[in-house]
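Notes on consecutive records. When two proteins share a document, each keeps its own sequence and its own token line. Never mix them. Below: protein one.
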Amino acid sequence: MIFYHCQNIEKNLKYSSVVSLDEEDIVFYFDYYYLILVLPALILSILAQIKVKSAFEKYSRIPTRLGITGREMAEKIMISSGVNGVKVSRIGGSLTDHYDPSSKVLRLSEPVYGKTSIAAVGVAAHEMGHAIQDKEAYGPLVLRSTLVPVANIGSSFGPILAFAGLFFKFGLLTNIGIFLFSGAVLFYFITLPVEIDASKRALKILESTHSLTNEELAGVRSVLTAAAFTYIASALTALMSLIRLILISRDRRN
């Protein structure tokens, strides 16, 4: 749910953030573009991740009134929403929950799958929001699914090719790297409406089916709102990293 699609790109953002160039050679240090653009976004991203983990841990300790598990909530929403052919399975780790449109599998992490907490039910409902999007062929979800390989390639090789082009003074290679990384940035921004819409669907379903009390709904809203900030912070970090690459490339040409 929260970090599944973003981890690979953020690893490569950290790599690219410590490399800069002067007029003669490559220098490994925190350049002023990094300090002005990327570092504040990274700090915001870290704070957002701390916030969502804190909210998730808080509401993971509070059981729901009905004692329904994350898996049971997902199955209940499937029935009420007319979603067919989706399998609910368990996945290791924490905050690794996600819906896979290609295989029609909703994967719930250990703290969600068999747990009866407010956080577990909220996360399961959010992921079912994606399954409903898939059923309805929700445009941004279809586009995001198409962009997954582009984002993986762009985040892995874009910064490397861009800096290699700068080092060898090969402008075409730099431009290819920036172009590839732009695909990863686009993926982040397409993710925003997909995730926010899934959370809205989750809250609406939980409220309309009277699955949770008002107090429990408030807890789910806190968890999902905190998650939304991680998407925004990640998108901002990716955008600032792209702008930094473009500015370094411009300075190198001048």
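Protein two starts on the next line and is unrelated to protein one.
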Amino acid sequence: MVFAGRPLAISRQVAQADAVLYATGRVPNVKDLGLEAVGVAQGGKGEVIVNAHYQTNVPSIYAVGDIIGFPALASTAMEQGRIAMIHAFGLEFARDLSNLLPSGIYTIPECSMVGPTERDLVAQARGGGSVHEGAVTGVGRTDRGVVAGRRRVRGRLARAARGT
């Protein structure tokens, strides 16, 4: 595989191709939900517009997940649904979405992250903030790495130092 004119470190193979498909982003699949019939407002890409409680402009209708746009992650949609339910039933509980949202890229091997990047932590430390710690680990030693036969793939961990 080739990335930016160089072989990828994983395979060290160069592949010739006439075309490359690069796809990013999604659009909400709301065509058959009948949102227009009940008056639910939508944005320019078809996403359902919601307030901080995930309530639409129709007070009895809430929306979460992919149909409201970014970040369109299953783990985030679960939390959005919890916040919507708490609001809909007038319950007293945490009402805000965490600012630590996990994200993932479904590749082989998978790539995921949560929180600040290593670059963010280094910049924070240079600005007088907490010192950052980093580590590189062999993903092949994890159960997923063994099952996938990816023994040479490496993962990277960065975090603020303990006690900061």
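For the record: The beta strands are 2-3, 6-7, 103-105, 111-113, 132-138, 154-160.
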